[in-house]
Amino acid sequence: MVIALCGYMGSGKTTLGKVLAKKLSCDFADTDDYIESTHNQSIPEIFKLHGEEYFRELEYNAIKHFANSNKIVLSLGGGLPIKDKNKEVLKKMFVVYIKSDFENCYSRIKNSDRPIVKNNTKSQLNEHYNNRIPHYEKVADLVVDGEDIEEMAEQVEKFVKEKI
After folding, report:
1. What is d(CA 100, CA 109) in angstroms, rounded to the nearest whole number?
2. Cβ count within 10 A of residue 112
3. At a CB cut-off of 8 Å and minimum separation 6, what does 123 contact?
């Protein structure tokens, strides 16, 4: 089973994913890390050299790579659930949406080198955040709300053990 974590940049997907993987005795993977390691380029380099659409295709290939994995917690890139073909692959996974307040996300990402962050104002990022929420909600099997990683991990662990 693949437990996929979605949410906006800075929502805590990677942090929660590592805690959850340990609790469930699963492996942990991150689609962005996978893309960087298989292409020997950082995400900003990929955006700069090849553009966003190329990167979105790499995300699709990454999610297909993990789709049939066994016992893995997978952190998804923030834009991955936007594409319809990715949504189709996500149907094979148990998807958890980490619903985190924009201000909390922004405080974590504002000084990052992420292309979307560097090329947009706070106001534009807030609009971007709001545009992505319906996509996250659409793919989610479970929504966890909050900022406490341990509490969210316990919620997911309990749900997974009861329902799956």
Report:
1. 13
2. 13
3. none
CA distance 73 to 54: 25
Question: Which of the four pLDDT bands, split at 50, 70 and 90, describes residue 54?
Answer: very high
Percent of the chain scored above 70 by pLDDT?
A: 99
Residue among 4, 3, 60 at smallest CA distance from 35: 60
Q: For residues 159 and 103, give the distance between their C-alpha atoms in angstroms, rounded to a whole number.
A: 28
Please determine, for residue 21, whether its predicted confidence score (pLDDT) is greater than 90: yes
Q: What is the mean pLDDT of residues 98-123?
A: 93
| Angle between helices 52-66 and 43-50 in degrees, nearest 10 | 130
H-run or E-run covering 127: helix 122-139
Amino acid code (one letter) for 15:
T
Burial class, 95, CB count within 10 angstroms (exposed 0-12 / middle 13-18 / buried 19+): buried
